[in-house]
Design goal:
The protein has one helix and five strands; from the N terminus they run βββββα. It is mainly beta and 82 residues long. The termini are close together.
C-alpha cells in the first residue's frame, strides 16, 4: 500500500499563486526523492473547488510539476478512509 494523506495531516508546502488557486503539498519521505499528494483549491466565483493530483490521496507526484498535474475531485468517502 502506498503512502497516503492522513486525516489531520498538515501540508509541508503551500503555494498561493495569484490568490485564486492554492496548492498544498503533503510529503512522503519513504522514497529517495520526496513525493507529494497535492491538493489544489481553486476559486470559481464565490466557491472554492478542491481537487487532488491524479484524483488520489497517494503521495506520488513531484511538487515542481504541481501546475501541470491532472486534478480530479475525490469522493468524500475515500477521503474519510485515509
Amino acid at each position: 500500500m502506498s503512502d497516503r494523506v492522513k486525516q489531520r495531516e498538515l501540508p509541508s508546502r503551500i503555494d498561493t499563486t495569484d490568490g485564486t488557486m492554492i496548492f498544498e503539498g503533503y510529503v512522503s519521505r519513504s522514497t529517495a526523492a520526496p513525493k507529494y499528494a497535492i491538493k489544489r483549491s481553486s476559486l470559481e466565483g464565490t466557491t472554492w473547488i478542491v481537487k487532488w493530483s491524479g484524483g488520489t490521496l497517494e503521495k506520488r507526484f513531484d511538487w515542481e510539476l504541481r501546475t501541470s498535474c491532472g486534478y480530479e475531485e475525490i469522493p468524500l468517502y475515500e477521503y474519510n478512509q485515509a
